[in-house]
Amino acid sequence: MSSWVKVAPFEDIPRLGARVVRRTKPDGGFDEIGIFRTEDDRIFAINNQCPHKKGPLSQGIVYGDKIACPLHGWKISLVDGKAEEPDEGEVACFKVKVVEGIVYLDV
Question: DSSP letter string over 55-89?
Fold first, then answer.
């Protein structure tokens, strides 16, 4: 069952940039999801913590369909959440869509 929530107007997410959405977990805590916009205007959503040292991916550099972690430069795919070799690990990916200029996230 999907639960789409409104994130922001598409134009509010800068090209090669990101926005962060906080999601409340059942235990009362929260996690962060990074919403990323590529140079060619594709939108992706992945967990905002690098699998290496939990660096905030939303503060990294977007290039192509990857994000470089700001702490140690790990490259994470925005498509499938996997670290680029030789690094290992992955982050969760989330569905996103743009409808009438608004970005929605399936939480």
Answer: -BGGGSEEETTEEE-TTT--EEETTT-BBPTTS--
Pairwise CA distance, residues 84 & 26, whole Å: 31
Separation between Cα atoms, residue 41 and residue 29, nearest integer Å:
32
pLDDT, one tens digit per residue, over 17-50 is 999 999 887 888 888 999 999 999 999 999 999 9
Residue 44: name the closest of 13, 1, 23, 75 by CA.
13
| CATH of region 4-106, choose from 1.10.260.40, 2.10.50.10, 3.50.50.60, 2.102.10.10 | 2.102.10.10
